[in-house]
Design brief:
The chain is of the alpha/beta class. The chain has four helices and six strands; from the N terminus they run ααβαββαβββ. Helix 3 links the parallel strand 1 and strand 2. The N and C termini lie far apart (52 Å).
């Protein structure tokens, strides 16, 4: 990892020591290349965006930002990305709209499952396709926009 990317990962780790984020961040290892270190956080709740933005400003982080948008759509406006970390669970496979936001060689880490059982998975973009691999068993709350639609069951 480049020095800039390592610094960003350290900030990421310091930002959420209470959860699984520090553990997941190690799986975003990327091929050696120069990075445009400009991390973005995506949040649906307007008040959370304002609070997180104020927190970043308070600790003088000037190369990161929190943007508002639907988690299930990602944030294509500033992509493609070298790394995407989904800080929570998705019930099934990730939408292609999110995977398509990865740069060639980029990686995405997310938990697939629910609050009781799941797997931490890593996807890697290879040209126009993707590979994925299981990293470890994990569970986390399912994020808004990734919950199952209510279905009629007889």
């Amino acid at each position: 990892l480049s020095a800039g990317h390592k610094r960003w990962m350290e900030r990421l780790k310091k930002g959420d020591l209470s959860g699984i984020l520090p553990e997941l961040s190690q799986y975003l290892e990327l091929p050696d290349r120069e990075f445009k270190v400009n991390p973005r956080g995506l949040e649906e709740n307007k008040e959370f965006v304002a609070s997180a933005t104020a927190n970043l400003e308070a600790v003088e982080v000037d190369n990161a930002a929190i943007v508002q948008g639907l988690l299930s759509e990602g944030h294509a406006a500033e992509g493609p990305y070298d790394a995407i970390l989904v800080n929570g669970a998705v019930l099934s496979e990730l939408p292609s709209e999110i995977l398509d936001q990865l740069r060639d060689g980029g990686r995405l880490v997310a938990i697939v499952g629910d609050q009781t059982q799941g797997r931490c998975m890593q996807w890697r973009r290879i040209g126009e396709g993707f590979d994925n691999r299981w990293l470890f068993d994990a569970s986390a709350p399912v994020l808004p926009g990734f919950r199952a639609e209510a279905e009629f069951v007889f």
